Protein: SHS2 domain-containing protein
Organism: Candidatus Woesebacteria bacterium GWC1_42_13
Amino acid sequence: MQRKSFVALSFTRQKLQVVKLNSGKTHVEKFASIDLPQGLISDFEVVNPQGLSVVIKNVWRELHLNEKTVGVVVPEFSSFVKPLELPKIDIAELDEAVRWQAQEFLPSGSSEMVMDWKIVGETPEKYHILTLAMKKAILAGYVDAVSTAGLFPLLVKTPSLTLNTLSGKDPSGKLIVYSNFGETILIVAHGEKILGSSVVSPEDNADVAQRAAAIVKHYREVDVKRVFIGGAEATQAYALAIGKALAKPVEVLKTSVHGFPPDQIQKYLVTTSLAQASSVGPSDETTINLLPSSWVKRYEGKRLKSQIWGLLFLSTLIILGCLIVTGGAYFYLGGEASKISAQIEAKNTSVPPELTSKIEEVNTTSAKVLAISEVFKTPQEVINAILSVKPDEVTIVEYKLDLDTGKINFAGIAATRESLVKFKSGLEENPDFSAISIPISSFEKDIDLEYEVSLIFVPAAKKAGSTPRIPQNVKDTNTPGI
């Protein structure tokens, strides 16, 4: 499931960067670069997840960030990248074939590694595949720190992936040199296919031009036509040295995001590129996400529970407010009515027309207030009714409840056609639901059916036509995992 909004985090040995873009991903709203205390990350591996989570919590508090979903960039040195070529087979069988062939170059057993891949090109006979892998223990350190901070990681990438995205989709060979925070990353790529990357330590940064020439020579099968540089430490002299060593013109990496101070743009290239990415899960063959599918589902479930509790809390406050208003109005109007009645009895005169009109107005207002309290329905009633007939093979990932009109819409994925039919039958058997509709196109596939359901919640619809309305819509929410 793709989410439009998330906060990007980028980790190095000594720094943590945070970037939050607007919903259109064109302008930066908040950003920060934080020095990490010693002893949190050692040799690109998190050794103190609890301490790192405290740092992340402090950043969220200081930046006043409300978004809990995050994407993470892990250090390049801890990953393994490899291009593969495989015969054209069915997409459903491609994942197994990629993982089988990847065992030839992975340094550890498949049980100790996490890996994802994407198709970066194809010919009539072959798929060109880019694979990315990392030791599960190393990845878990970063993910656990983020999760312990109360956040929900749904996307994990490396600097080479984000930088190659910034260099554009030109299918020609290219070299990317990125220098930031004392470290340099060298990347050789051919279009979207990354052939290799190298991390130059701070003590070797003086020889970056020579190392750039060496890595181009090593991948001599690639005709490097374009050279890109980026990072806060990519000075003009730096660019001239690399251009001279490679005898090629040098281009500066750029981002389409606005709002950074001019001297900060290069510093945040990696984190900004991640923030612009789509948060598609690891099962998609067009993107790479190192976070395993099982981990994604776990964190999506936690995020959903958090949203439901928040929704219930808000509903409780609204109900309590209605009761307070109703009670106050009732006692106030009752007191006013008693005063008027006493005055009438004392004077023993006929009731003036204006007084009669006022009493009728008071009674009408009281009836409206009581009607408001009667018409209110909590979203949890509807959610519970739907979940009570939902088979385990069906997942709800998006919903919209309009309790003013009783209109309910939700969407998700059904493992099989039979499970979706069973779900529809269960909804039809509930007398509280009517006008249940699922598009025929949702039943075209045999497995992993993406469906949409629209229906009417009868109790809310009946009251909507005879009682005053109050705002109680539940906004569209991408909440995978129900």
